[in-house]
Structure formats: C-alpha cells, structure tokens
Amino acid sequence: MQTKDSLTHLMITMTKKRTQNKENYYYVFWVVAMVAFIVPQVYTAIAYHKLADILTDAIEVKVVEE
C-alpha cells in the first residue's frame, strides 16, 4: 500500500510531466508557425528580385514589315 507521501510525489511528478509536454507542444507550434510565415516571404522576395532583373534588361523590339 502506498503512503500519502509517495502518492503526493506521484501526483506532482505526473503534473510536472504533463506541463512539460504542453510546453513542448507550445514551442513546436511556434517553430512551425514561424517557418510557415517566413518561407513564403523569402520565396516572394526571390521572385521579386528575379522579376526586377528581367525588367531592368533591355527589351528587344523587332519590326516586321509585310
């Protein structure tokens, strides 16, 4: 039979473990949220710079006479 002290210790240990799991999920959530927010911004910035490079090049115009 468990004594009251050992039962109290078990309850405290379980509570700490449960809290630690919640904290781990909290950090995982924010890492995923940051990646989901930053990756599209980087992709858009790269695409914008490629488009700017294309637009700064001279445009060749050919006149076709019939």
What can you tell me about this protein's structure?
- By secondary structure, this protein is mainly α.
- 80% of the residues lie in helices and 0% in strands.
- It contains one helix and no strands.
- The chain has one helix at 4-56.
- The model has no long low-confidence stretch (mean pLDDT 82).
Short overview:
By secondary structure, the protein is an all-alpha fold.
Architecture blueprint of SSEs:
Layout: H1 4-56
Q: Could you give the order of the helices and strands?
A: H
Straight-line distance between termini: 104 Å
Low-confidence stretches: none
The percent range for strand residues is under 5%
Shape field: rod-shaped
What is the overall pLDDT average? Answer: 82
Helix vs. strand class:
mainly alpha
Strand count, sense and barrel status of the largest sheet are: none
How many helices? The count is 1
What is the share of helical residues?
over 70%
- Strand tally, please? 0
Any idea what the radius of gyration is? 30 Å
Please supply descriptive tags for the structure shown above:
66 residues, mainly alpha, 80% helix, 0% strand
